[in-house]
Amino acid sequence: MAIEDVQQLLSEQLGKNSGTEVFTGAVTGKDFYAVYFPVESAVSAITASGVTNATALQTTLPAGTTLLMGIQAMTLTSGIAIGYKE
Prior knowledge:
Order of helices and strands: HEEEEEEEE
Strand order of the largest sheet: 1-8-3-6
Strand content: 35-45%
Helix content: 10-25%
Structural class: mainly beta
Shape: globular
């Protein structure tokens, strides 16, 4: 199958028919495989699969950052995040 346009390429990269959730505060009980920050955002808490030092991710992330990992919970003190799940 050939990729015909940019939208199809993005759909393939981010999972076909994926669910998305936009949030500005706390989310729990999630199963995100990626979280994108379109604006500068401050993360104050995060729970992610296989991450042993989550405090390293409790920081201000610049606009355009994408975390590619299994995230179950996250709290933002400022900014916006878009979580992607199947």
